[in-house]
Structures are given as structure tokens and as C-alpha cells.
Design a protein that fits this description.
By secondary structure, the chain is mainly alpha-helical. Helix 5 runs antiparallel to helix 8 and helix 6 runs antiparallel to helix 7 (158-181). Helices cover 68% and strands 3% of the residues. It is built from nine helices and three strands. Strands 1-3-2 form a three-stranded antiparallel β-sheet.
Length: 223
């Protein structure tokens, strides 16, 4: 599949936000991959991405080098650029890493889980429920990650969150493809358990609910 990004609205370089061109391109591509807006295994070209974002090839090349270092894209010896199509073994490994990191982030966030945060999480979960009921594939991965990031930011553990986001980045396209095949109604139920544990101040219950949520989606891919 040699599609570029032309299925998305054209972005002028001025639309990509402040900062150097390579940083702006990096943020834009990173978000697209993170939110599953590019298919797993999809081939990309430097020229196609440069034209789509209205920049030269150089900042695109620099952005892709950073993304390759994070495991978000692969660069073959022949020069082919693509998002990773995960093997079953890699999916299991990513699920195991998430099961280690994310319950710890949630536990660290628990002492600062005030009602304003819980209300926000309930609102996001309601949006996820709406997206699931409508079969709206595009927003699901983004909303699900927003739920988790909103909670984990309260952990005040930026290094741990950065590691977690790297795992999300590697699995974003695959999660999006999975959702295209099956509805993710389980996520809403898991999130309700997470919210209930936060309300109760129940750290063991919170850890269990987070672990079930973050591993369930990836492991459904290999079942």
C-alpha cells in the first residue's frame, strides 16, 4: 500500500503550529500515528509528505528519523518508510510493558484524583460510548488515549508518561485497525471500573482495572 497522506486535509506549513519546520512536521506526524490515522504497514514517501504539509523534504526527513528512533515508523535499507505492522509477539510485549507502567501511573495519580478530574474522565468516557455506539472509528483511539493521558498527567511522573506514550505510538495504527474490525465496548466498562476505583480511593482495584483495560485491547489482536 503506497498511499501517502492525501486522504487527509492539506496542511500548509503555517497551520502546523509554532517552532522549526522539522519540529512542526514531527508533532503532526506523531499525532497522526498515535491516533491511528495511518494504517499499519502503510508506505509513506518523503516527497508525498513534504507536498502534503507544504514544506521541503529536509524537515520531513528529520522528523521521520526521530519517529524511527521511537519505533513509530520503520526505515528499510531500500529507503521504504512505513508504520509498523505488529507481529503477535510484539503485541504481547507491548501489552506486558503497558501492564507494568500504566497501573503505576494511575496509582501515583490517585492522591490527586479530585472530583474535577473524575468528572472530566466521566465526560471523556461518555464521548467514547457515543463513538462506539455510532461506529465512529476515527475518534475512538484519540478519545481512549485522552482518557488515559488525562489521568496519568496527575501522576506528576513525566519520564514514566513519556515511556508510556512511546508504547502508544508504536501500537496506535494497529489499535485503529483492530477497532475497524470489532467494536470496543469493553473499554467503556473498564473505564467505569477505573472511575469507581478513583472515587473509592481503592488503589488495588484501580491497578487491576487499569491492567485489564490496557492489556485487553492489544491481546484481542492475538486471540
Amino acid at each position: 500500500d503506497h498511499r501517502d497522506l492525501h486522504s487527509f486535509p492539506t496542511r500548509r506549513s503555517s497551520d502546523l503550529g509554532p517552532g522549526p519546520a522539522h519540529e512542526r512536521v514531527y508533532r503532526r506526524l506523531r499525532n497522526r500515528i498515535l491516533h491511528g490515522e495511518i494504517e499499519p504497514g502503510q508506505s509513506l514517501t518523503l516527497r508525498g509528505m513534504a507536498e502534503e504539509m507544504d514544506v521541503s523534504i529536509t524537515p520531513v526527513r528529520e522528523a521521520l528519523r526521530r519517529l524511527a528512533a521511537e519505533g513509530a515508523v520503520t526505515l528499510s535499507k531500500s529507503g521504504r518508510i512505513s508504520t509498523p505492522a505488529l507481529t503477535n509477539e510484539r503485541i504481547e510485549e507491548l501489552a506486558a510493558i503497558r501492564a507494568l507502567l500504566e497501573p503505576e501511573l494511575a496509582a501515583r495519580a490517585l492522591p490527586r484524583a479530585h472530583m474535577a478530574l473524575i468528572d472530566r474522565l466521566q465526560s471523556i468516557n461518555g464521548e467514547i460510548q457515543r463513538l462506539v455506539s455510532e461506529g465512529a472509528r476515527n475518534g475512538y483511539v484519540r478519545a481512549n488515549m485522552e482518557f488515559h493521558r488525562t489521568l496519568y498527567l496527575r501522576a506528576q511522573a513525566p519520564a514514566m508518561l513519556a515511556l508510556t506514550e512511546t508504547i502508544w505510538l508504536q501500537s496506535g495504527p494497529t489499535l485503529r485497525a483492530m477497532y475497524a474490525r470489532q467494536q470496543q465496548t469493553r473499554a467503556v466498562d473498564h473505564h467505569m471500573k477505573i472511575i469507581a476505583a478513583l472515587k473509592a480511593g481503592d488503589e488495588p482495584g484501580l491497578r487491576l482495572a487499569i491492567r485489564a483495560d490496557v492489556t485487553g485491547g492489544l491481546r484481542m489482536l492475538v486471540s
